[in-house]
Hints:
elongated; YojJ-like (1; alpha+beta
Amino acid sequence: MEFSDVSGNLPLLRKELAKKLAGISETLELELTQFEQNNIRFLNAIEDISRKFAAMETLTSTYLLDGLLSEHTGKSKEISRAIHRLGSKGYSALIAIERNDSVLPHISGGTPIHARISSQLLETLFHPASGLQEGAVLIQGDTIVSAANILPLTKAIFWDRMYDVRELSAVGLSERCDALLLLISNSGATSVVLDGKLISVSLSS
């Protein structure tokens, strides 16, 4: 099932996830009954189950992010399209979406843009040769307000791994206001930052 099939329909998403989980459970139970010391085929079953879990993660992540974006901008599809294109091109990006709290008291140094959101414009702003690719783009409603904004760094210490400046900036802003931040790495990985928490997501194309 594609995201377009469940968009805006939480009961249908729940039903689809429950169906997929039931199928995984049945497969696992069947494979376990046939599991023996030399049954190398069991690894194929585990790989298949991993793919199904990954598909569930992608479907759920896309649904939840679309819901978050749709609450505060009418251009959620353009933003989602930009995320995929930026990731596929290997462009790093940081997008701050204002929700209820004002973001402006916490940022500095931005270049005014004041243009309607489009995936093409976001790609242009984060192009490595744009001159505006460093820092964050600020979005208010359906408008790209500014680019190359400097965000406050978090003072938190993370023991699990080394965070880069964009990640520290995203967490820092989200600790000071309720902004939704989107991070795209040059490897194509996407993260959502909210309430001081950085969450990796897998999104449908």
